[in-house]
Amino acid sequence: MSELHLLFPTAAQVAAECPAPVYLAQRHYLIDGELCHWPGELADVFSPVQIRDDSTGNIEPARLGATPLLDSAAALKALDAAVRAYDLGRGEWPTMPLLQRIRHVEQFLAAMAEKRAAVVQLLMWEIGKNAADAAKEFDRTCDYIRDTIQALKQQDRAASHFITEQGVLGKIRRVPLGVALCMGPFNYPLNETFTTLIPALMMGNTVVFKPAKYGVLLIEPLLQAFRQCFPAGVINVIYGRGRETVGALMQSGNVDVLAFIGTNKGASDLKRLHPKPHRLKAVLGLDAKNPAIVLPCADLQATAKEVIAGALAFNGQRCTALKIIFVPRRQASALLPLLAAQIDALKLAMPWQADAQITPLPEPGKTDAMAALIADARDHGAQVVNCGGGNFAGSLMRPALIYPVSPKMRLYQEEQFGPLVPVVPYDDINEVVHYVIRSNFGQQLSIFGTDGRAIGPLVDIFANQVGRININSQCQRSPDSFPFTGRKDSAEGTLSVQDALHQFSIPTLVATKGNEAGIHLVRNMVQQRDSAFLATDFLF
Ligand code: G3H
Q1: φ and ψ at residue 455, rounded to 5 degrees
Q2: pLDDT of residue 1
Q3: Half-sphere exposure for 61 (CA within 13 Å, toward CB)
Q4: Which residues lie with the beta carbon below 6 Å from any ligand 1 atom?
Q5: What pLDDT score does 331 carry?
Q6: What angle do CA 303, 418, 218 make, to 5 degrees?
Q7: Cα–Cα dist 73/400, whole Å
Q8: Sheet holding 444-448, edge to edge
Q9: Which of 153, 195, 124 is nearest to 477 (CA)?
Q10: DSSP assignment, residue 160?
């Protein structure tokens, strides 16, 4: 039995260290303010954590529960509920005064906070996120909701006044778009989903929400809170196979906004199903292959530390992870041992164990897929540089540092989304510039160096290629007040706290002639509070 095998716990160890969540065969889902019962087929939910049989040594994924495999008819009922609640913009939710809408969200936030322990435990067991990062994901999401409330108030304050321009008296407010379909990714099944779901709701849209493919049970503790804190039909939560459920929703033509974090192929397939593409707004977070570009002037020790943190946090399963490392050929022999040492220092462990950094991977067959990428790189002349890199047992893999990676290898272009660190030697920086310009992706990149004269011109070149350039720092989404975006196949739209409110709304203008009669009429309407749109209240 390998040393990696032995890292998986026995049932007795689990019971002593971190009992698994109580098995849940979930049959309920949320439509129109009701928790409906699903009598049909269920989808099993397995943990990436495998349990070791003490006597045989076999490892088997822990079974955590099951979720409803809804069919297209059930999914369409959820959409109908959202369509009714929106009522072509005349529903209670889209016309509700902003402060009241905010009260609903605050109520939800308070109810959600009570479920912290349950959700954090499920984040560890369902997707293998370590305890610290699971707690961080939950807390960051709560902060995001609070910040969104503040941003919305600020937006409303800025919109409360009238403007006059060229003799026209006007007032501009942002209003909702309609029904939003929100789907998040398995690596941030709470946070990333809520960064679209919450702004969509707060702007007055109604929502159908389908949880990610893994990290799905962790939404269950929040279903009651959704039900109790929002009017019926405003938020509907469905489960099931994407093809059957989401496909039907898109084909109906009743989805106004598609908020999707996943692959660009998945997004294209969904968009194509909509019968009126120009009526569909898409907010997409997609694939990325963010490069780290190490310059000859880089501080190699500091660079190695930051590169490995950026490449391997949560096992490399972040859209923002550094997924290809470019190194001057002359410095490769100095940098590779530093990178290998950083990898060796990472602790492989179960998510709840102290200081766990590399944990089991939730996608079935993922370690085999990673091994195939390594084999392809080896076939084309690369080697695994770190000791034991790429060894795996079940769902747990020791990260692999792979060198020299070249354009012939799959790892050069493909997004690995896992614990592989491909390093490409370069002789001329133009090779790297060419790679970035020709890449299908354009989310972020990192430049490592100390000479401003070398870094500055690259910043100017790359500013038109990617959504964020990080200097001596890994790629990342945070802080959430910064724009999070990408070009080409990496994203559509921009998500910061402020930008997300814009993505799920459209500016609408009320205008009249700025003459005496126009002013008189508008003044009366404001004073008599005839229109919520025209109100000039300051939101405290
Ligand atoms: O997976 C994509 C996430 O948005 C990355 O967020 O950079 O905060 O880990 P992060």
Answers
A1: -75, -45
A2: 76
A3: 21
A4: 187-188, 192, 318-320, 476-478
A5: 98
A6: 115
A7: 45
A8: 383-384, 400-403, 420-426, 322-328, 290-294, 444-448, 468-471
A9: 195
A10: S
* CA 350 remoteness from chain centre: 23
Pairing of strands 400-403, 383-384: antiparallel
**C-alpha dihedral over 221, 223, 228, 233, to 10 degrees?**
170
What is the structure's pLDDT at 310?
98
- Residue among 123, 476, 499 to mutate when testing ligand 1 (max atoms within 8 A of CB): 476
The pLDDT value given to residue 529:
95
Ligand 1 center from residue 457 Cα (angstroms):
27
Task: Give the closest residue (by CA) to ligand 1 atom 7.
Answer: 476
What's the 191 CA to ligand 1 centre distance in angstroms?
9
Cα dist. 450→296, 328, 433, 447 in Å?
9, 15, 19, 10
- Map tokens 């998510």 to a residue: 351
Residues of the chain with pLDDT under 70: none
Whether the bond between 422 and the residue before it is cis, its omega within 30 degrees of 0, is no
Global pTM? 0.97
H or E element that contains 448 = strand 444-448
pLDDT of residue 243: 87
